[in-house]
Amino acid sequence: MNASAVESVTRAEYCVIACAEAWRGDGEILASPMGAVPSVGARLARRTFAPDLLLTDGEATLVGPDGEAEGWLPYRRHLALVTGGRRHVMMGASQIDRFGNQNISCIGEWEQPARQLLGVRGAPVNTLNNPVSYWIPRHSPRVFVERVDMICGVGHDSARAAGPSATRFHRIPRVVSDLGVFDFATPDRSMRLASLHPGVTVDQVREATGFALTVPADVPYTRAPSPAELALIREVIDPARTRDREVRT
């Protein structure tokens, strides 16, 4: 792939790279991406810098980079991976706050919510038992809130309150949005801007965030895909461009 192709990297492709990086260094761990962009990212990571990553078809089969069956994953074995910290999920969030608490259940008071959403589902078990990152394709103050209306996924302050015995596998490596990448590398484990996607400014991120975000003096840009990675994304993993349906540029 030539240099001009690299220069034309889309926002969605930067998001794919940012999601893929969430699994860097995880080793032999089950990747559970939720959404088109995280799915493309997980498959890219497996094909490049994370060859030990385990992928599934979403049901009970372990699959390789080409989607071909590699093994069988019985439900009891899946639960063993979940509860033993051997899975890294990338979930979505209807709301997320400065400490990484996530809400996918309802908007408004629990007794009479303004909107009913998915429900708590597996978010507490995920966040207490294995690493969880987040993918948020529409960064706005309605999603990045000061305090979530209901805690589904457990954030750092809630994990501290629960105590070490309940949260020994609790880890939130990163939050990826259509504006940038965020982590919790601060003394109080509150959210920090780790990188900006090219074309995005710090002011844009601050305006789209409903809480005081830690912003370093020098914020790098999210790394660009290499020519080989870009070719894999466009020609092998996602030629149908499903990534573009989640990210508006």
Features:
six-stranded mixed beta sheet; globular; single chain; NagB/RpiA_transferase-like; alpha/beta; CoA_trans_fam_I; CoA-transferase subunit beta; three-stranded antiparallel beta sheet; 249 residues
Describe this structure in words.
Strands 1-5-10-11-12-13 form a 6-stranded mixed beta sheet, with helices on both faces. The two termini are 22 Å apart. With 249 residues, the protein is an alpha/beta fold. It is built from 8 helices and 13 strands. The longest helix has 12 residues. A hairpin with a 5-residue loop joins strand 3 and strand 4. 27% of the residues lie in helices and 17% in strands.
User: What is the C-alpha radius of gyration, as a whole number of Å?
Assistant: 18 Å
The helix content, as a percent range, equals 25-40%
Quick check: average pLDDT?
Answer: 89
Largest sheet: 6 strands, mixed
Structural class: alpha/beta
Stretches where pLDDT falls below 50 for ≥5 residues?
none
What is the number of strand segments?
A: 13
**Sequence of strands across the biggest β-sheet:** 1-5-10-11-12-13
Secondary-structure element series: HHEHEEEHEEEEEHEHEEEHH
